Amino acid sequence: MPKKKKSKSKKLNTELEKLRHAVDLLQDREAIRELQYAYGYFLDKCLYNEVVELFCEDCEVRFGGGRFIGRPGVMRLYLDRFRQRFTAGYNGPIDGFLLDHLQLQGIVHVADDRRSAHGRFRCFMQAGTHLSQGVVPEGRLQQWWEGGVYENEYVREDGIWKIRLLDYNVTYWGEYDKGWAGWDKHEIGRITTTWPEDPAGADELISPAPGRWPMTPVIPFHYRHPVTGKKWKAAKRKKAK
Amino acid sequence: MPKKKKSKSKKLNTELEKLRHAVDLLQDREAIRELQYAYGYFLDKCLYNEVVELFCEDCEVRFGGGRFIGRPGVMRLYLDRFRQRFTAGYNGPIDGFLLDHLQLQGIVHVADDRRSAHGRFRCFMQAGTHLSQGVVPEGRLQQWWEGGVYENEYVREDGIWKIRLLDYNVTYWGEYDKGWAGWDKHEIGRITTTWPEDPAGADELISPAPGRWPMTPVIPFHYRHPVTGKKWKAAKRKKAK
Amino acid sequence: MPKKKKSKSKKLNTELEKLRHAVDLLQDREAIRELQYAYGYFLDKCLYNEVVELFCEDCEVRFGGGRFIGRPGVMRLYLDRFRQRFTAGYNGPIDGFLLDHLQLQGIVHVADDRRSAHGRFRCFMQAGTHLSQGVVPEGRLQQWWEGGVYENEYVREDGIWKIRLLDYNVTYWGEYDKGWAGWDKHEIGRITTTWPEDPAGADELISPAPGRWPMTPVIPFHYRHPVTGKKWKAAKRKKAK
């Protein structure tokens, strides 16, 4: 066989492999968006078992200043904490309790070996208890707005994408009748206790505690600037006037 | 020609076809998102002719507890009902009337034969009439928030994706000054009459009528759990306290 | 070499090239969405240097009725106008000042030569100053909602997508306590001065000035109707009742 021929078919094969890889990465992005969106739709309806099953074994959730580590930690957060408090242990929605978690604006980057990925997403929430339900449980609000940013990690195991790290950072809260300008319930949703002392506590508290609205920390970007390729660095603060 | 060669080129062809199919499916997803987003942008501006043209002939809309069937039914809903009531028959926006339909969080699955698809999307609305317009028409609200979930079907005809079923399920309503906790206009937007008795009525009423906020039904997911592959099933309700 | 063989390999190559092009276009869409989303995340945090670096040299921003042309114009808007007024010149967020710019519902079309693209996106904003910050600067609002539509252009230079035209069209504003129905601050955010008389002015004022809420102009679509392929044309207004 002439040598030239061989290299031509080899070139075709190489090009085909490169294309296959590019298509795989596009499919991975779609799968990760779908995973994150499914998380939102399940959470809306207090389907906490379904939420927990979106995570890999070696997972973590950062929420409210606490770290919930591994599947036991993540189950503690969603099943022992949220499910007990929001739906009295029922795996599903309660009439009169709204908990919409809109998921949007995902910037997803998949590692070239297709084993891991990072995703920045945004959450926008409408939540609260309808007046017909009577008294609002202590420590909860009648109705509120909430906005936040995730900087998550995902892993691919046996061809299936799962959440490895869910790192949720609230940007602002606002009670419905006062808005974000009037927010004054500064301790709501803050995790201050650890397991096992608190059976629904975190594995660790994040230290120092992340700044909360009306503080406005920048959640670092997993990605470089899309045009310059520079990593983001905070500018130096000027002295206060 | 040697046998080996033949099979090599055949293998290349097969791989190429598989790749072509994967790319086609990715393009289909993009086309369906675009279709659904275009629906939202048209509806914002009361461009009802343009909305109706997004549907195939054998289409259906489920809205407010009514089923509007086939193109005549869908035209009845958008042209005879919405357009008459919202813009007095004009195909376009009216000053002072806001009707923003944000479309987001789409989970789209295309059938392997590329002839049909399912999509779950979310709608988030801001709507109402500016005070400068004077009186608000009877049966409408001054200004309101609305959130909902679509579980839609799409078909591909002559290479073009169209909406086959638009199934819109409101999660909550809230008048601007009271929010979702204070929602008490329980009959707003409910379809209770059928055609031809009502010239703008539904072809059929959905029975039993879907639960409305403050009820919180789960809209079944067209997709399986992204990690476990299980179909969702409602948990049994515990007895009420 | 037999002729047939040659044409077979040529056919394979042609098919491969077509596929490569389709994959390139899918990647371009992802890159443009990422660019627009990154814009939103940077703007949230008053990272104005990072915002400006998303634009190409020959760029333009249309905002508030003004055109800011070329990199000098765009720097004037983000650095001399927004940064001076919102963060007193600091390139980053100020505690107590919320400026969330949710980016969603992108319809992106890439030119076949992959050198330019159009994108329609939506912005949904929550903004304002927390009460703890004391007095709100003159000409600003305590807290407000805002919705808008972009019809943007992008260019690809040296393989990198950049913003060429950012054309932002506000659909509605609403102060938090009054909503969009009660909007009465009709001069807020309107650009009425030009450079160099105003060092933070526009290069040109758009004439006639675009209609503002409660006016409801249709922002023309860069795309044709996804099903009929027709270009959108406004219907004739009927005489006022």
Please provide a brief summary of the model.
Chain A has 241 residues and is α+β, with helices and mostly antiparallel strands.
Protein described:
- The structure is a homotrimer of 241-residue chains.
- The first copy, chain A, is an alpha+beta fold and 241 residues long.
- The first copy, chain A, has a single domain, classed as Nuclear Transport Factor 2, Chain: A (Roll).
- Chain A is 27% helix and 31% strand.
- The first copy, chain A, contains three helices and seven strands; from the N terminus they run ααββαβββββ.
- In chain A, strands 3-4-5-6-1-2-7 form a seven-stranded mixed β-sheet.
- In chain A, strand 3 (97-110) and strand 4 (116-129) form a beta hairpin.
- The longest helix of chain A has 42 residues, at 3-44.
- The radius of gyration of chain A is 22 Å and the shape is globular.
Q: What key phrases describe this protein's structure?
A:
homotrimer, 241 residues, alpha+beta, Nuclear Transport Factor 2, Chain: A, 7-stranded mixed beta sheet, 3 helices, 31% strand
